[in-house]
Amino acid sequence: WLDSDSCQKCEQPFFWNIKQMWDTKTLGLRQHHCRKCGKAVCGKCSSKRSTFPIMGFEFPVRVCDACFDTIKEEELV
């Protein structure tokens, strides 16, 4: 999983990134990880869930919205 102080999709700061929160006058967000690409993303950018058996995820897990659109039907079987 990739480390980041802000969402790697929308660049909003995570809650521990005090400097960026202060500079942008925004509240920090919770960090999540896409189970397909491994990027650190916020909840808004990872609102989708999918099974991903090829990676060992038989039950729906969080994936970023961009990866969700690229999952092929054969990867779900």
From TrEMBL:
Cited Pfam families: FYVE
Coiled-coil stretches: none
InterPro entries recorded: WDFY1/WDFY2 (IPR042234), Znf_FYVE (IPR000306), Znf_FYVE-rel (IPR017455), Znf_FYVE_PHD (IPR011011), Znf_RING/FYVE/PHD (IPR013083)
Domain FYVE-type, residue spans: 1-72
UniProt entry tagged with the keyword Zinc-finger: yes
Alphabetized UniProt keyword annotations: Metal-binding, Zinc, Zinc-finger
The name this protein goes by in its record: WD repeat and FYVE domain-containing protein 1
Organism of this sequence: Goodea atripinnis
Lineage start: Eukaryota, Metazoa, Chordata, Craniata, Vertebrata
Gene expressing this chain: WDFY1
